[in-house]
Amino acid sequence: MRLASKQNRKRVPVIGIIAALLMLGLTAPAAQATSERNCECATPSIDRLQQWIASGEGTTVPATGSLLVREGKRYAAKVEFLNVEWHVVVVWLANQFEAQADLGKSRGFWMTYSATDDLYVQLRPASHWSGGDKWLTLVPSTGGKLVRKFFSFSPKAWTTLPELGTPSYSFASALREARGFVFVGKTPNKLDFRGLSIDGYQPPCL
Fold first, then answer.
1. Is this structure's pTM higher than 0.70?
2. Which of 37, 71, 123, 183 is the most buried (most CB within 10 A)?
């Protein structure tokens, strides 16, 4: 009887450890799933960016409105540029036109996308939103393949196009009052955006 009692006492900690491990196995996936849900907004978004808009400038599909479409458990922003003319797609960095973001300390952004031809992304500040004379950087063609690429906010990586004009303000000032990214291209192109995360900045969900 004493031997049985000792064996039972030895088994209790082992059973407790197994039970704890089983509980961790059951709760960890649920916690992870909750975390994944919280990283996006309640309405369609890509990395918490809710406003991906065809502006109506240039012939695009869709012509106007949101580019966001369901892609599995997440969303993608898809648009097609049709003609040899300037096309414009807008992303509001704080999810509303009147807002802006201070990206002065950000190193840059990661973007997951596919493109069948080259295009550009402009950084448009709140104080100089309108017009084509903006600081921009090349978004190279991926040949239609989905890639993830880092775009630096180093001033050396940003330039201007004579056809669109030269901005009257510095790139550093544009970073401090960034209202949106504007994707522009002059050639037919099929674009698919799956991710756009900015170093040191989290867009507010609306």
1. yes
2. 183
